[in-house]
Amino acid sequence: MAGFVDSTVKDIDDRLRDLKEEVKRLEAARAALIGRGPGRPRTGTGTTRRARRGPGRPRGRRRSGTRANQALALVRSRPGITIPEIASEIKIEPNYLYRVMPRLAGEGQIKRDGKGWHPVSE
Questions:
Q1: Whole-angstrom Cα distance, residue 70 to residue 49?
Q2: Whole-number percent of the chain with pLDDT over 90
Q3: Coil, strand, or helix at residue 78?
Q4: What is the Cα–Cα distance from 39 to 73, expressed in whole angstroms?
């Protein structure tokens, strides 16, 4: 009976050692995928992204309006232009313009007529 217990304990120890090695490999693979080592904190201060941003500051990139200004200039120079045409002209993906154009329309700078966009007459 003592031999059975000893061999079972040895088998358990061997299996635990194998599992610990696998945990190390998996942690290293995970760290490589997310770009940080195991145990390394995400930020030095421990604050959340929202807290660092401060009140009133928008999320993500600051909007300089460059693409919106380019799109607006194209609409003014070529009334009736479509989003795919604008995207092709300024060499960006059209999905970005599907957010920009309604914002410009909401600001009263352009209006949509069918599939094309037109400047608002002032």
A1: 31
A2: 41
A3: coil
A4: 51
- Same structural domain for residues 3 and 47? yes
Q: What's the confidence (pLDDT) of residue 32?
A: 85
Token code pair at residue 64: 């300089």
The pair of three-digit structure tokens given for residue 87, joined into one six-digit string: 């995207």
Point out the residues of the chain with pLDDT beneath 70. 36-64, 122
Query: In the chain, how many domains are there?
Result: 2
Query: In this structure, what CATH number is given to the domain that contains residue 109?
Result: 1.10.10.10
Candidates 71, 62, 58; CA nearest to 98 is 71
Token match 């194998």: residue?
A: 18
Positions of E strands within 3-44? none
Q: Locate tokens 């599992």: which residue?
A: 19
Neighbours of 34 (CB within 10 A): 8
pTM: 0.47
Mean pLDDT of the chain: 82
Residue with tokens 């145990």, as numbered in its chain: 39
